[in-house]
Design a protein that fits this description.
four-stranded antiparallel beta sheet, single chain, 2 domains, Immunoglobulin-like, 50% strand, 20 strands, mainly beta, 307 residues, eight-stranded antiparallel beta barrel
Amino acid sequence: MSRFQYILLLLFPLWILTAQDSYIGPVTFDYSGDQNGAFESVLFDTIPTGGALTATNSDSIWVSIFALDQTAPDTFDLFIAFMQDTASQIHPRSWDIFQSDPDNIEFLMVYAPGIDSSFISQFSTFFSDSSSSTDSINIDSIITSIIQELMDDVYISIGGGLEIETASDSAFSGSFYGTFLKGEITWPLPQINISNGSFTVDKILSTALTIKNTFTPDSESFSLDYPYPNPFNPSTTIHFYINQQMEFVTLNIYDISGNHIETLIQKSLNSGRYSIQWNAQNYSSGIYFAVLSSNYHSLTQKLYLIK
């Protein structure tokens, strides 16, 4: 496993889990021009890397559809679409590049072929920095920062459109197309055309994983440390600390869809520090969650299994 793969695997859970609502699903399209081919959102041949993030504030919702395609062991193509709407939730509608107000960007697509981990690390900071205050997210500033920082490396949409064709409380789907010019100006102008774009994304983290961390007045009584090693194959050790006797403690493993995988602990525990190993030999590569719960609150850590 190369350093590129570790960085990318750590990046995608960050994107998936920092927004108010998170989705996962395939993003595909054909491209032609400076380069020709087909894009499919899969990493390491098994891990899906397409999805969407949404967040709302008092008067709008923003949506980001993203995907990575691994084209070689250390080379990746990145696609991102940004949309902003004055509605309070996702609903069927369309955006057109030509109708966007240049002073108030509400739709933009970015395509970056042949990138490496340093590009992705830069890009991820824009999401992590803004995710801590989603109530005041300004999509204009995010887009402007990305363009200024990465201008020479990406193709930016100058025409095209995106349509959300179906939408529900748990999923949405649609199509897109576009004409993209590279930020670095050369002659002839570097251009890529995207056609037959489609996305179908489902909301992740079922009820089992929508547990909010709630605390007793003594918030130091309960902690869940970062598992080690992580990423791992096939075993990792989960450490946690209890500062007082608890009548009922559970440690459960869930997959990225919220399905219960295993129960590692389910009993009364005295105060102290505990370690338990999870062997994932019988499970496929992907993102999992360790959820430690008591009668008072729950804590969650992400697990990255790579085979």
